[in-house]
Amino acid sequence: MLFSRLRTKLTVLYAGLFGAALIAISLVVYASIAANARAVVRDELMSSGTVFDRVWTLRADELRGSASLLSRDFGFREAVASRDEATIGSALENLRVRLGIDMAFIIGVDGRVTGQDPTALKGAEARLMQAVEQEDNPSGVLMIGDTPYQATATPILSPTLVGWVVFASRLDAKEMGALERLSAIPLDAAVLGRDDKSRAWVAPPGVSGLAGGEVSRALAGEIDQAMAAKAPEARDFRAPGGDALTLVKPLKAIGGDGPAALLLSYPMARAMAPYSPMLAIIILTGAGGITVLVIGSWMLARSVTRPISVLDEAVQRLSRGENAAVEPTTADELGRLATSFNAMASEIRERERRITHLALHDQETNLPNRLALDRAVEALASEARRNGLKLAVLSLNVNRFTHVRGAIGYALAGDMMAEIGQALQRLRPGDPIGRVANGVLAVAFPVREVDEARRIAAHLQHVLEAPVRLGEHAVDVSLTLGLAVYPDLVDDAALLINRASAAVDQARAGHRGLALFDVADYGDPHAKLSLMSEMLGAITAGDIFIHLQPKFDLRLGRSTGAEALVRWRHPQRGMVMPDAFIPMAEETGHIRTLTEHVLSLAIAQQAALKAQGFDIAMSVNMSGRLVGDAEFCEEALQLARQAQGELCLEVTETAVIADPQRALENLERFADAGIKISIDDYGSGLSSLAYLKQMRAHELKIDKAFVIGMAEGQKDALLVRSTVDLAHSLGLKITAEGVETAMVQALLTAMGCDLAQGYFIARPMAQADLAAFLQRERDQDAGEVRPKRSRPAAGAKIA
Amino acid sequence: MRRCPALFASFGLAAMFLAALAPAARAGDVAFLVVDAKHKPVGDAVVTAYAAGVKADQIHFPWPQAMDQHNLQFDPFVLIVPVGANVSFPNRDPVRHHVYSFSPAKVFELKLYGKDETRSVRFDHAGVVALGCNIHDGMVAFIKVVDTPFAAKTDDKGQAVLKGVPAGQVQVHIWHPYMKSAGNEIVRTVAVSASGAPLQTIQIDVRNAPDRRGSY
Q: If you average pLDDT over residues B117-145, what whole number do you get?
């Protein structure tokens, strides 16, 4: 597009069209003026030509009449006849002066000139003789040198022809000036003759106009053409000095060849001169008109385009989400467009507001949502940083929310959260709050120090843990609060809400109502994730291996089994605790690969020990997540076929909770394959006697928390004893974990416990060490000597 | 050119008279036809011949030695007279005439004289005398004064006859007032035998008579 702005385009278009029209009109006016002027000049030239003819004839008649009178005067004739030159000369001079002519002389039949110096005639007498040969009384233009003369030659008859009286009047600039004055227009007149020798047209010296100076070749050609025309007519002549109109009339010449020419000319410039003020006015008017038009169309275009520009800017503001309303300035289409635009903009803004509201609010409670709170926290964090303050985010979890919701229904649960939210907002007016999860609210507020935040949190908890009235009902609310403070507890403001939630988890883990986020406790989930990505490589590289912890048969007094415990020696991090990667492996699904790896290692080492003469029942922990995994079961059964001794899979009771039917089926399949099932960590967590009844287990492993507690309290000892009895009653063997002292071992032995496992017996160890340990036991059995063990080793069992 | 028919009669009689006088054995007649460039006959041309041994005295021509003025014209237009002749100028017009001549052969002036008055002028020198009237420019006439007996002027048919011209080589002058040549005449030599000579056709170049229409 040539013009990027409508205004310029309209202006140029209008001005261009009008200008073109104006120029066309001016051209037409100029052309008609020029044609008119040309016609006037043409007429004037023609009439001047006619006047000249008349004047010429009158003068010729006058000359001829005078000459004729003289030539017939008896005395003059007598003087001529008697060759009385003095008399002749005086008579001629007398008449010349009286008539006001330039030359008067006699030329005899013999060509002799009297009354005039023959040299002044410059050979003109020859032409005169030539003329009188052809004509008695010649009259016309006689060229004397360069100068044309109007001349007449009248015979002197006395009575025979003796000569001619010649009168000649110069046709010079002065003479022609007189003729020019006869014309209504100041035209230029000149009589041109032909040079004697060169035959070129010559003009008398001193004439003005076209013929002034030397006759140009172009003018000579023009004259020749005009002379060739039938009737004299005005013609255009393109002279170097400008166009001119010319009229050429042939004039009879005396002697010589060809007629002379009367040249009347009038420059067109002079013809146009009277019109030049008018033309100037037209041009000025046109220029003025164009100026007015340019300004006018610019203003018009602006009035048209300004609302468009305004709309254009408004659209851009609208796209930026700013206020886009425009003021309708006119009642025309543009005004209506502006009104429509305003309506559209306000609708868009309203819709946007609604969308934003939806995006930033929880629909159930109409409280701000997590996203809204995120934004608010972000803004507050930077503000707090600027002000040297800290930003606290308090996460308020309604305890047992799902239970409550189950009890009162979703709608009322939502109402409850709304009530709590409103109460929270009333307590912390101006502070951003948000519903970050179903039963979780959060509030952010700036504080000077962490303790201030803690105090506020405690106060809020106190106030908010009042029964909420929902219609006719009152619901008791208990809250667990997590507090994260930036930058003291959390270095990244964006994580504040997450950390507050984590703090809630930490509070719950510690059975507290309020916890500050504990970064040490939280660990580094990011590092855990990266460990997972390294796990498969570590399995292949052999960095993940197993240690074996002996299971001591209290009755036999020697170790009959071992539990395989996974270990990871990380090339950079050193030994990685199972706690650091087992839960993550469960979450990420790596647990299956890991368990299969452990299982195959355990089977292989069992075989190796057997080869050394030690028959060991090998226990492998199986994650609850894998119990329901049919594929894993297939794989594990496949591996188990290669086992050269007893295999035991240790699972927790809770492993069957997620999908009891499938889990129990799988356990049946293991049991059918001869694999023993051990219920691990019995007594901790949600032990269910129902599952205990359904599970086809062979062994019960009592949680070490009870076993360690036996040494100190009576209660634990009772629990252990009753559990041992319970297991035996159900036909299960019982294993006690966490046996760390001789006394506990003795107690367990006394209680009838079958197997013991713990540091007092042995720490987990490599296969070779286990072989050596078993060898020592065998030796001791023979010598009844108990070895002393104090080797420190970090150990933890799987899951 | 205008001439009086009466003159032709006298001219004819004179020719016959001359022929009767001439010695028959030693002379012959010579006839001339004068034409112009376009072969048209030219009248009023004067043919004169000069023969050796012929005396110029006592020359008589058979036509009247008179120049009439009649109807504002001279009559005849050309008059041949011998040297020494007295020529009368009778005015037969009711108006006066002022006859003059500026010719070198005879300069004279006959000032205003009226009807039926006669003046006479004697011409002593051979030559051409151009006559004009100062009052009437249209009047012009020529008197050819000759010093030979052999002279004649052509008639309307351009014919003229010289009678009794002696045999031998004869110089013949042909003159016409408007002939384009020096002295308005040309010269021819004609061989004349006893029986005369064959017809002599003479071509001359004659200009038009001067225009006298503007005359008063």
A: 89
How far apart (Å, rounded) are the C-alpha atoms in residues A194 and A146?
Answer: 8
Query: Could you tell me the pLDDT band of residue B55, with boundaries at 50, 70 and 90?
Result: low
Burial A448-485 (b: 16+ CB within 10 A, else e): eeeebbbebbeebbeebbeebebeeeebebebbbbbbb
- Which residues pair with residue A260 across a beta bridge? A251
Q: Please tell me the predicted confidence (pLDDT) of residue A562.
A: 94
Predicted local confidence at residue A213, as pLDDT: 67
Cα dist. A357→A114, A363, A367, A369 in Å?
A: 133, 9, 10, 10
Joined tokens for residue A312: 């254009």
Lookup result for tokens 């010719």? B103
Partners of A734 in the β-ladder = A700
Name the pLDDT band for A566 (thresholds 50, 70, 90): very high
How many cross-chain Cβ pairs, A to B, lie less than 8 Å apart?
38
In A533-555, which positions are buried (b, 16+ CB within 10 angstroms) versus exposed (e)? ebbeebbeeebbbbbbbbbbbbe
The angle at the Cα of A549, spanning A588 to A674, to the nearest 5 degrees, equals 75
Which two tokens mark A19? 């200008």
Q: Which of B107, B177, B215 sits opposite A160 (nearest CB)?
A: B177
Nearest chain A residue (CA) to B131: A159
Task: Measure the CA–CA gap between A697 and A650, rounded to whole angstroms.
Answer: 10
Over pLDDT 90: what percentage of chain A?
16
3-state SS class at A558: strand
Q: Are A140 and A84 in contact (CB under 8 A)?
A: no
Asked if B110 is an interface residue toward chain A (Cβ–Cβ < 8 A), one would say no
Contact check, Cβ <8 Å, A160/B100? no
Non-local CB neighbours of A534 within 8 Å, separated by 6+ positions: A570
Within 8 A of B130 by CB-CB distance, chain A residues are 158-160
Chain A residues in contact with B134 by the CB 8 A cut-off are 74
Report the chain B residue with the minimal C-alpha distance to residue A156.
Answer: B210
- Which band of pLDDT confidence, cut at 50, 70 and 90, is reported for residue B212? low
* DSSP per residue, B176-213: -TTBSSGGGEEEEEEEEBTTBEEEEEEE--BPPPPP-T
Spell out the residues 6+ positions from residue B25 whose beta carbon is closer than 8 angstroms to its own: B194
Q: Tell me the backbone φ, ψ of residue A723, rounded to 5 degrees.
A: -65, -45
Residue A629 has pLDDT above 60, yes or no: yes
CB of A155 within 8 Å of a chain B CB? The answer is yes
Question: Residue A561: pLDDT band by 50, 70, 90 thresholds?
Answer: very high
Query: Does residue A487 have a cis bond before it (omega within 30 degrees)?
Result: yes
Pair of tokens at residue A39: 């016609």
Judged by CB atoms closer than 8 Å, whether chains meet at A159 and B140 is answered as yes
> For A435-490, how does the pLDDT look when each residue is reduced to its tens digit (9 = 90+)?
988 889 999 999 998 889 999 999 999 888 888 888 788 888 889 999 988 887 77
pLDDT one-digit tens code per residue, B22-36? 444 477 888 999 998
Of residues B150 and A197, which shows the higher confidence score? B150
Mean pLDDT of chain B: 81
Show the tokens assigned to A341.
């635009």
pLDDT digits (tens, 9 = 90+) for A727-744: 999 889 999 998 998 889
The answer on pLDDT for A347 being more than 70 is yes
Interior/surface letters A261-286, b for 16+ CB within 10 angstroms, e for the rest:
bbbbbbbbebbbeebeeeeeebeeeb
Lookup result for tokens 């001591």? A552
Determine, for residues B131 and A68 on separate chains, whether the beta-carbon distance falls below 8 Å. no
CA atoms within 13 A on the CB side of A686: 7
Residue pair A482/A506 in contact by the 8 Å Cβ criterion? yes
Q: How far is B206 from chain A (nearest CA, A)?
A: 12
